[in-house]
Design goal:
This protein is an alpha+beta fold. Helices cover 14% and strands 30% of the residues. It has three helices and twelve strands. Strands 2-1-9-4-3-8-7-5-6 form a nine-stranded antiparallel beta sheet. A three-stranded antiparallel beta sheet has the order 11-10-12.
Length: 223
């Protein structure tokens, strides 16, 4: 991507505060505690992780999400696919503390599966990574920001904050880009608005929509 994209702010799902990725980290921890004010009755709790995921090469894309510690790693795989990367059912893998956990492990090579509980793999401040599609990969950095107790009911993964769509400009006229050419992107080109897309030399049928994801413009990803 040859054009400079400004660092993105994001919105807290609890209070709608709009902050940078760095400031959101501190905000979520304090804001979460505020939301977790006891209701007056005793409820069972369980451990959860607050995790930050961000694109490795496109760091303006980021998500803070909460996940119960007793769910399996494959749940994060499903979450990232649904939220950010799924296009054609490609393979994926996590690398955690030097070990690789694959979506479709090869028993011959004794690959590790994703059927491991998070509390067996992660701790506070654990850094790990994710890769979707080994041919045209989208790579993500993940970090456990904190761990805390949540009400035990439910096991869903919750988005706590996500980056606002970055402003990407059409390379021809400077208006907001709405399409990306996956062929031209390899040359750090191909960001186009609606009007300029019509006459693009690679053909309109080859263009992909500009979406709020680090997989924008890759393979057949349309969001």
């Amino acid at each position: 991507m040859n054009q400079k994209i400004k660092k993105t702010n994001g919105t807290c799902t609890f209070c709608n505060s709009n902050l940078s990725k760095t400031k959101m980290k501190a905000h979520l921890e304090s804001c979460k505690q505020k939301q977790a004010t006891p209701s007056g009755k005793q409820t069972r709790t369980k451990k959860a992780f607050l995790i930050l995921a961000s694109g490795i090469s496109m760091r303006e894309y980021w998500i803070y999400f909460e996940v119960p510690a007793n769910v399996k790693l494959k749940r994060i795989d499903s979450f990232l696919r649904k939220t950010w990367v799924e296009c054609c059912g490609h393979l994926s893998a996590f690398t955690i503390k030097g070990k690789i956990y694959q979506s479709t492990p090869d028993k011959y090579f004794k690959d590790l599966s994703m059927n491991y509980s998070l509390d067996k793999l992660l701790d506070q401040d654990t850094n790990f990574s994710y890769e979707y599609d080994f041919g045209s990969p989208t790579q993500l950095d993940l970090k456990v920001i904190s761990e805390y107790q949540i009400e035990s009911a439910g096991s869903s993964i919750k988005i706590l904050a996500r980056n606002d769509p970055p402003l990407i400009l059409c390379e021809n006229c400077g208006n907001p880009a709405t399409y990306i050419c996956p062929y031209c992107e390899y040359l750090d080109e191909g960001w186009l608005c609606d009007e300029c897309a019509v006459g693009h030399e690679c053909g309109v049928e080859m263009l992909l929509p500009v979406v709020n994801s680090p997989r924008v413009g890759v393979c057949g990803y349309v969001g």
